[in-house]
Specification:
The protein has 16 helices and 20 strands. It is of the alpha+beta class and 528 residues long. Strands 6, 10, 11, 14, 15, 16, 17, 18, 19 and 20 form a ten-stranded mixed β-sheet that branches. It has a five-stranded mixed β-barrel with strand order 1-2-3-5-4. Strands 7-9-8 form a three-stranded antiparallel β-sheet, with no helix packed on it.
Length: 528
């Protein structure tokens, strides 16, 4: 059975033969005049226009070779660009012969092409005897010689880890994966359009921070050599955006990556795209109404619908959203008073319901574990409201019950897909809550928030009443119906080199050290 190395060597031989003919297998440019999808969609109009003498039939198309069938004097080549697939029809006598000094291939040189190559073909549009829209080729040239063969179909490239590691191959053999990321782009475009139309201003804020905050998460730590200081990759957009509200902006948002040094699961990735917005003179009630409209809008713009089947739940974003009181749902389920219960009471409820007691080292973590056990049964869309103050240190106190805060979280298909609240703008109150979080951090809770004294100073200068919100691309993953790794183009994987690659480049991976790892960076070993 032929190996990857065998196929590669045969293609390298063809590459040299092309060069011996004086043909550049990797020319700098092409001369496309029309996309394949346009030809297929407008074929009848193109033919009518040609008959009426308004335009000719000649086109110049480009694409990757998907298949080659040769019958002596006839050759059929299937090519594909981003917009579609079509057939090239080559017949001896019609195709311009190869001539030294030109880039064009003669029909006798077609044997030097392989699936995966990129070509450019010029000819007239028409239909074959079987009725297939085709380009009747007059000239054909190679644009790129593919050295490795592309898998023939999705079934031959179904190993998940292999797909994630070579996503560029995955998207070629499974075009639905590529379309998914087109929808992902559409999702964020719709998000921007919605906020821009509502008068928000997009402001890109720093990724590197001296003090990171705005969420309960473990940050990545790096160093800025020029300052000789450690810094953090942001875990949230929150605090810089709220500084902008203090600076005089009234509606701001940012879309970009954030980083949380935590597990890799079906719902979480250490790096992912997220967005946050903040609106001055709004409160949580304004925020809930606004986001209900957003979810329906983004769903329609991205998927053309508002009704979804997600993980066994039926969700409709055009229905009225349910309101869930945090303390009431926990009391109804467990008989626990979230405000008065002891840590021992909470741990007992966790244990009695078959949940892991681990990671319930304080009341907020334990109660959150109980809530998540309820959450997984809720279809939604619903708002979780009246969250206890000790669980949400950055939200404004609810005047109707000072034990709670004005926080609203969307519950959709058993998960929370966002977070918003009336922002705390009392600097004295904020400092006190920061101090509580810092004490939790000092006692070993790596996800508790850091004390950000500069943010407290900003509040002392004054920040108007503000509503804020944030969500990650988990919203897209859920509505798309895929896991986190399936939902991003290049998911984080352990850095490894396959045995097939080592066999192709034996001179590079000759040493045992290199065979056990990826190529070193800048020629240095990891421990240099």
């Amino acid at each position: 059975m032929a190996t990857l190395k065998d196929y590669r060597n045969e293609r390298l031989r063809k590459l040299e033969e092309l060069r011996d003919l004086g043909i550049d297998p990797f020319p700098a440019g092409s001369h496309r005049t029309v996309e394949i999808g346009e030809v297929l969609a407008d074929f009848d109009e193109i033919m009518k226009s040609a008959e009426e003498g308004r335009n000719g039939l000649s086109v110049n198309v480009v694409g990757r070779v998907k298949g080659i069938r040769s019958f002596g004097n006839l050759v059929f080549i299937k090519i594909a660009d981003e917009t579609g697939e079509m057939q090239l029809f080559l017949r001896k006598g019609d195709v311009e012969p190869f001539e030294k000094g030109k880039d064009n291939l003669g029909i006798e040189n077609i044997k030097l092409l392989d699936t995966g190559d990129f070509v450019e073909a010029t000819g007239d549009i028409g239909k074959t005897k079987t009725g297939e829209i085709s380009v009747f080729v007059q000239t054909i040239r190679i644009l790129t010689k593919a050295i490795r063969p592309m898998p023939l179909d999705y079934e031959s490239f179904e190993n998940q880890e292999e797909r994630f590691r070579r996503r560029y191959v995955d998207m070629n053999v499974n075009t639905e994966v590529r379309e998914r990321f087109r929808r992902r782009s559409e999702f964020w475009r719709a998000t921007r359009d919605f906020f821009n139309d509502a008068g928000f201003v997009e402001v890109n804020i720093p990724v590197l921070e001296h003090t990171t905050g705005g969420a309960d998460a473990n940050p990545f730590v790096t160093e800025i050599d020029a300052l000789d200081q450690d810094v953090y990759l942001r875990i949230s957009h929150e605090l810089p955006l709220k500084r902008l509200i203090g600076a005089g902006f009234e509606k701001v948002y940012d879309i970009g990556p954030r980083f949380r040094n935590e597990g890799i699961t079906d719902e979480h990735l250490p790096e992912h795209v997220a967005m946050e917005w903040y609106a001055a003179y709004w409160d949580w009630q304004d925020g809930m109404k606004f986001m209900e409209k957003y979810y329906a809008y983004a769903a329609k713009e991205t998927w053309g619908k508002t009704k979804f089947s997600i993980r066994g739940f039926e969700v409709d974003f055009e229905k009225e959203w349910e309101k869930l009181d945090y303390a009431k749902v926990i009391s109804d389920k467990y008989g626990i008073d979230v405000f008065e219960s002891s840590l021992e009471d909470i741990k007992k409820a966790i244990k009695d319901n078959g949940l892991e007691v681990e990671n319930a080292e304080n009341r907020s973590r334990g109660i959150d574990k109980l809530w998540k056990n309820i959450r997984r049964t809720i279809a939604g869309p619903a708002w979780l409201i009246n969250t206890p103050k000790f669980i949400s240190p950055l939200a404004k106190t609810n005047p109707e019950d000072e034990r709670t805060v004005e926080r609203f979280q969307p519950v959709i298909a058993g998960s929370e897909l966002g977070n918003g609240y009336s922002e705390l703008n009392d600097p004295i109150d904020q400092l006190g809550r920061f101090m509580e979080q810092q004490q939790m951090r000092d006692e070993g809770d790596d996800e508790a928030m850091m004390l950000d004294i500069d943010f407290v100073e900003m509040l002392e200068y004054g920040m108007p009443p503000t509503c804020g919100w944030g969500h990650s691309e988990r919203v897209f993953w859920f509505l798309e119906g895929v896991s986190a790794k399936e939902g991003v183009p290049f998911p984080m994987m352990k850095n490894e080199v396959s045995e097939s690659t080592k066999s192709v480049y034996p001179e590079i991976f000759a040493s045992k050290e290199l065979s056990a790892q990826a190529l070193p960076v800048d020629g240095k070993k990891k421990d240099d």
